[in-house]
Design a protein that fits this description.
Chain lengths: 159, 274
């Protein structure tokens, strides 16, 4: 189920969302899924979903495998570290978590890009774009969180 | 104890995945194109790329439709703007044509040579008697401009009437076509005297010509200077036809006014020099 959701999210992002940038920022549902999985199911699940989703993005976007994988692995795992210390029913949690996860993910992505020599980072350009992307991800986070919870419930009922 | 084991396991899984990813990325960076998907990646791409391409085509079609839609909206706005511009330019053109026509009329008025002892006061026609179209008209000059009752009113083409009412800022002009109008005239060639009367129509009636007078169609009719209203020598019109009834003592003629009485916009009022 998670695999299907990840594939759909990665396809939607690489085929559709990249064509609709808002001030250079593109929504990243894969990252939101990694954050949601980490918070709802724990760090290990978050790390696995993050890595799988990131690698899928790398595969479909034509970039070197591992760039998105590495950043989303860390984001998914990091989100899972808060699994037991936050109140999951808080209505603002999805948006806040997605916002923070986006900042972390983009920071890691840029660091990886610089370290591997794939690109340089201009903070003046990157900061507004990343902030807008964080806001966009916050907007899509609540329905995606609800979707993940629905998947979990269905999974629990079946088993 | 279980918590500690779970925590260690979490960290171990993370470190394992992290190292795997770093190794993968390093291998990618060392490859020629910085991308080496391998057999698993190739298999995944074999399945997913057609789907991605189909979705991309859908997105491209959507983008084209959106562009077309926004283009239509832009064209509509452009159309409205251009229509407004055309309306404005049409109004400007109409105003410019009107000004040009007015300028030509005024040039014609300037061709009029005032009679000795008179000043020509230019006036604009501001109204007509709607009941009897050819009879009277209002002009925007009055006693403030030294316009007096019975002052002759002319255009460059000829006589059109006389002032019958005066207010400080306006005057009413009785046209020569009015049935109440009569003026003493001469046939310019033969110098025969007569009276031109209006008949409430576009044509004037010349009467009291002697039976022996030599008048013919086309002869010019001018004011005689008798009667104290019109100065001598102003053109009134041209004879259209002459009628000689057997046994009658006089001849009569149909006269076409020299001035176009139905299309007056500016006139000259002759006032005595101070």
């Amino acid at each position: 189920m998670y695999g299907g959701a990840l594939i759909v999210a990665a396809l939607v992002q690489t085929a559709w969302l990249v064509r609709m940038p808002i001030a250079g920022a593109v929504m990243d549902p894969v990252l939101v899924l990694a954050v949601a999985t980490g918070i709802l199911r724990g760090a290990e699940s978050g790390a696995v979903v993050g890595l799988a989703g990131g690698l899928l993005q790398d595969l479909l976007s034509g970039g070197p495998l591992g760039m998105h994988g590495l950043s989303k692995l860390v984001v998914g795992f990091g989100s899972g570290l808060f699994e037991r210390s936050i109140y999951i029913e808080n209505p603002f949690l999805p948006a806040v978590a997605a916002f923070a996860g986006t900042l972390l993910g983009e920071a890691l992505l840029n660091i990886v890009g610089v370290v591997t020599g794939l690109g340089t980072v201009s903070l003046r350009d990157a900061v507004p774009r990343v902030l807008i992307q964080a806001v966009l991800n916050s907007v899509i986070a609540p329905p995606l969180f609800r979707g993940i919870r629905a998947l979990d419930l269905r999974f629990e009922r079946q088993h | 104890m279980l918590e500690v084991i779970a925590a260690r396991r979490r960290v171990a899984v993370f470190i394992g995945l992290f190292l795997f990813t770093v190794a993968l990325l390093t291998a990618q960076m060392r490859s020629v194109d910085r991308r080496q998907v391998g057999p698993i990646g190739t298999a995944a791409l074999t399945l997913l790329l057609p789907v991605q391409a189909g979705m991309a085509r859908v997105a491209d079609a959507g983008t084209r439709w959106w562009r077309l839609y926004t283009e239509i909206g832009r064209l509509r706005q452009e159309n409205v703007r251009l229509r407004t511009e055309v309306d404005r330019l049409s109004q400007d053109l109409t105003a410019a044509r009107e000004q040009a026509i007015a300028a030509r009329r005024l040039e014609r008025l300037l061709e009029f040579r005032p009679q000795p002892g008179y000043l020509a006061v230019a006036a604009r026609v501001t109204g007509r008697d709607p009941q009897r179209w050819f009879s009277t008209l209002l002009v925007d000059r009055g006693s403030r401009d030294r316009v007096q009752r019975n002052a002759p009113v002319v255009t460059a083409e000829g006589v059109i009437g006389r002032v019958i009412e005066v207010t400080p800022t306006a005057a009413r002009v009785l046209l020569i076509a009015d049935s109440r109008s009569a003026l003493s005239v001469l046939v310019q060639q033969s110098r025969e005297a007569g009276i031109v009367e209006g008949r409430g129509a576009s044509m004037l009636h010349l009467k009291y010509l002697s039976r022996t007078a030599k008048v013919a169609a086309g002869d010019l009719i001018v004011t005689s200077g008798l009667g104290g209203v019109f100065p001598r020598g102003l053109i009134v019109g041209r004879i259209l036809s002459v009628s000689r009834q057997s046994g009658a003592l006089q001849q009569e003629a149909e006269v076409e006014p020299a001035a176009s009485l139905a299309r007056l916009e500016e006139v000259l009022i002759l006032v005595p020099k101070p």
